[in-house]
């Protein structure tokens, strides 16, 4: 059962999303070659605390940090640590907050300095795939219309979509029904209704889509060692069309 949000819920989720977008924007300006991923986590937690909200990820099923920092071949759930960012790297930042019991979730991928042109295209295609998916988040469409539009755009540009990790419903819990794959046939699954709120998140690999989980039990990396990119927004379905809450 996909929960529908009330007007009060949506008002609170808008506040949550706006705060998260502000935090991520400030964090984005900090990212540069020479810092460690642990430093990113320290700043993320500081910014979260300053906004009087709670990190959604820290402690979630034992995750040890406030933000996921996934570098180059790391797909998702990168644990911040001693890794030093260098020129030419790409890094995905995935961050969630809890604002008075209402969750929002956002992710971006950044290139550090001058990056390989194909890595730049990977980032651009993943970001655009998110926009293509969000376009389909409107009443009377089917859930898989989001999935299909993402897969179709990504694969038409020569990249692959990760199957193991998917988008999800969000609201009063970080992960709610339904799961939202980034692949599939169109016009399948539940019919979308106003009041649904989703975290739409294309995760795109330069090479093959298969992934491997590292020994830390969290971090997924590409099976072929090629780079991966990740973008995400929290999106409300309304009668007027999709509303991005983390813009």
Mind explaining what this structure looks like?
With 247 residues, the chain is α+β, with helices and mostly antiparallel strands. Helix content is 28%, strand content 27%. Strands 8-7-9-14-15 form a five-stranded antiparallel β-sheet. Helix 1 (7-28) packs across helix 2 (37-50) and helix 3 packs antiparallel against helix 4. The longest helix is centred in the N-terminal third of the chain and has 22 residues, at 7-28. The mean pLDDT is 98.
What is the tally of helical segments? Answer: 4
What name does the CATH topology carry?
Creatine Amidinohydrolase
Strand content: 25-35%
SSE pattern, N- to C-terminal = HHEEEEEHHEEEEEEEEEE
- Number of self-contained structural domains: 1
Tally of extended strands?
Answer: 15
Features:
15 strands; Creatine Amidinohydrolase; 4 helices; 28% helix; four-stranded antiparallel sheet; single chain; 247 residues; alpha+beta
Give the SSE layout:
Blueprint: H1 7-28, H2 37-50, E1 54-55, E2 67-71, E3 74-76, E4 90-99, E5 102-111, H3 117-135, H4 143-156, E6 160-161, E7 167-169, E8 176-180, E9 197-200, E10 203-205, E11 211-213, E12 220-222, E13 228-230, E14 233-238, E15 241-244
Antiparallel strand pairs: 1-4, 2-4, 3-12, 4-5, 6-10, 7-8, 7-9, 9-14, 10-13, 11-12, 14-15
Helix pairs in contact: 1-2, 3-4
């Amino acid at each position: 059962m996909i929960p529908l949000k009330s007007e009060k819920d949506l008002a609170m989720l808008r506040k949550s999303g706006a705060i998260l977008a502000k935090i991520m924007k400030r964090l984005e300006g900090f990212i540069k070659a020479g810092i460690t991923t642990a430093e990113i986590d320290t700043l993320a937690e500081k910014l979260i605390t300053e906004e009087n909200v709670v990190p959604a990820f820290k402690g979630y099923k034992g995750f040890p940090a406030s933000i996921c920092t996934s570098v180059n071949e790391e797909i998702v759930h990168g644990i911040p640590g001693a890794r030093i960012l260098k020129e030419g790297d790409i890094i995905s930042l995935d961050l969630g907050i809890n604002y008075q019991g209402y969750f929002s979730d956002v992710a971006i991928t950044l290139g550090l300095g001058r990056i390989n042109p194909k890595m730049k295209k990977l980032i651009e295609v993943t970001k655009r795939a998110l926009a293509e998916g969000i376009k389909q988040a409107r009443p009377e469409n089917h859930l898989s219309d989001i999935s299909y539009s993402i897969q179709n755009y990504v694969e038409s540009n020569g990249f692959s979509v990760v199957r193991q990790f998917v988008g999800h419903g969000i609201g009063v819990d970080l992960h709610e029904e339904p799961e939202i794959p980034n692949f599939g046939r169109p016009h399948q699954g539940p019919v979308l209704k106003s009041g649904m709120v989703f975290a739409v998140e294309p995760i795109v690999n330069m090479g093959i889509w298969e992934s491997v989980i590292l020994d830390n039990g969290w971090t997924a990396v590409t099976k072929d060692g090629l780079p991966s990119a990740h973008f995400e927004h929290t999106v409300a379905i309304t009668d007027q069309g999709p509303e991005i809450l983390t813009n």
